[in-house]
Model the fold of this input.
Amino acid sequence: MVHEETAYESLVHAHGDEGHWVFGTGFDDPLAGVDTSVPPGVDRADLGAYCLMLGDDALVLSQRLTEWITRAPELEEEVAIGNIALDLLGQARLLLARAGSVGELGRSRSLATGSVPDEDALAYFRDADEFRCTPLVEEPDGDFAHAMVRLLVASSFRLAVLARLRGSRDPVVAAIAAKGVNELTYHRDHAARWVLRLGDGTDESHRRAQRAVDAIWPLTAQLFTATGVERRLVAAGVAVDPSSVRDEVRRVLAEVLARGTLTAPPEPPDAEPAGRSGEHGPALTELLSTLQGLARRHPASTW
Amino acid sequence: MPAPTPDRPPAPDETALQEHFEATIAAEHRIEPRDWMPEGYRRTLVRQIAQHAHSEIIGMQPEGDWLLAAPSLRRKAILLAKVQDEAGHGLYLYSATETLGADRADLTDKLIEGRQKYSSIFNYPTLSYADVGVIGWLVDGAAICNQVPLCRSSYGPYARAMIRICKEESFHQRQGYELLMTMMRGTEEQRAMVQDAVDRWWWPSLMMFGPPDADSPNTAQSMAWGIKRHTNDELRQRFVDMTVPQAQFLGVALPDPELAWDADAGHWRFGAVDWDEFKRVISGQGPMNDVRIARRRAARDDNAWVTEAASAYARKHAVREAAA
Ligand SMILES: [Fe+2]
Ligand SMILES: [Fe+2]
Done:
């Protein structure tokens, strides 16, 4: 039997049980203790820009998923979406910190005070035109079908990329990728299960799932086109060419859609990766005004 | 056609069952789902645990309102993990009610229709980011005072859920206090935000322990059944005694001119709680009651098609598997 006073003391004064606590909440610098030197022959600016591409995708999708919290179907889904959003936020923090550690801070560093860590200078003090995310992650979700179809596509793509990045010559990127692969396997599995249930559920859920697929497919036009940064870093052994994962990703998506009795729309023709160089629609600007507002109103504060 | 068999033996003598139940309680052993229990015990427990579960779920909203705007990525991660923990707490607790024959969907309907209550504290708005810290410190702190004794609840599934929940609540309290410490070391504006939040949340926190003992008619029965371990006033006093030194260390003033140390009694004496406000808020007149319930209702109704799809899918595939 638990003795109450002892239990109370041990709860209030517990300090040794951080183990179950989610990654990234217990310390300030997410790269603390990691060797952040850049391998020879790798361009620092390219590496920083690449980390921002990967980091911004994770940050923006995490924010979109977080919009579901307190609004999700079923409590199990609150927990699952919370997990996925936390995983992506953790990946974003590491990648933004990596970008900061190689000097990729742009205008944000001069806007944020010195006590603001790099990850926050980059997340909170860049404008939309400095964000390098792809359009797939930016649009708001109309309904839960949209959220799950988008998560399926985004996690399938990201899993394929990160699986290859485990062999990156940048040891920090390789370590982030190794950690991310397990997480993304779960994200993709979770989304795929829902796409099956919605696609092969009721008439209404099928209609909504197909509508989500039709809305999301065109947003993948930029996904598989390499930027100049990526092409140079592929040559240096650091990055993955997104066009090299196209077949794998399309195959996974086609299989899930078929099992969910959904129809894959025609593949959109490849488009210039404009999102990766800072061209975005109004949805991202709106998302950032919510994300950044408080931090920007108190630029001299630490939290 | 086989002969119908009774699915349970004829009811043994209820008096013997009642005696066994009372002996179990007296020996501080636990009642488990399959044990016989008086109907009043079952009903009171379902109400108590459901109210607790509802509070966990509605309690996600006040702080959840800051999730998208948290001022650093580290704070966003901490807050997201906390709000997610609360969803988990709600899940364990609804599961505990299901061991007593209740149904989660039915309890959720009762919450939305106003037929079951949740903690009045969650009907106040969160006006600044300091509220996130103050909720962790005071609201999770008060919840810990209320809940640690329930780790000894006579009902096994509830007691076990409480042990797990209390560990996480203590994390929340420390994280909240740590945010406040950081803000108090920050700018003048941040310190003012903390004091303002403390001014707004102090009295509602004291109300979390429920009405004074004189107005709490069910306390005696609940204590006899071992599903309540201390009176409301005892727990409130324990919370005040614990919190005053923490406020001093933090450097904030608690908004009570009558707060004074009583050396003889070894307790902090405090002023009168506004029980009229408590009654107004608990009966639905608080500043955020309608918003909280509307959000919960929307989560149920706007996503009803998702739940229906999941059931339809499960039915189809059960049929297909059976046919295969
Ligand atoms: Fe909780
Ligand atoms: Fe909590």
About this structure: Chain A has one domain: 47-297. Residues 1-27 of chain A have pLDDT under 50 and may be disordered. The pocket of fe (ii) ion (ligand 1) is lined by residues B 56, 86, 89, 165, 169 (CB under 6 Å). The longest helix of chain A spans residues 171-199.
